[in-house]
Amino acid sequence: MASGTEGNYLRDCEEIACWVSAGFGKNRREGPENPRSSQQGWIAFPYFEDDKVVLIKYRSVIQKITARQPGMKTTLFGLESIDPFEPIVVVEGEPDRIIMEQAGFRSVALPMSGFTLTPELRDALECADGIILAGDCDQGPGIKAMERLKQDFGDKAILVKWPDGYKDANETFIRCNKMDVNAFKDHFNDLSPGRKASRCPEFTDWLTVCYLTMKER
To answer: Could you read off the pLDDT of 43-53 as tens digits, one per residue?
Structure first.
């Protein structure tokens, strides 16, 4: 990472810390209304574009309520994971994307099922080596959102359905695979036949070595 970019990243991290310590979300419609939520803590999800934080969303650790930093951009969570040599898995919601990444899959998350991709975001996803659509199977907006994306991307994308009785990646990981990361990875690869969404660490490491070698010359 270039020194200038690193400086921007560090400044963004400092801003996140200031926002959190200042008591984000208070007295806002999406913010915490239960005082226990504020006392127990929140998880902050920073959204990046070009190494800049463009959105920060928060989720209570004790109940399913969220907040967001006002006046910031709505976009995909995890754009930095898109790689031209690997497929990208599109899910819905930050926890699902985190589970996919933990299992070794590059992933981005829609901020909500009704979110419409901008031309720039569509182009960014097109850069990946295939698109795997694995959103919520909730018999409603989640399925419709994935079907709409499948129609948009055509043969570039495949549509994955989670097992019956499980709504999404997070629920499949916790309830179906009993929080076993390797079991979840194998399970998901079985769900997406013809396009194995697995990492190639040796190839990535080789590219890194080449880059560092060239940089030193």
So the answer is: 899 999 988 99
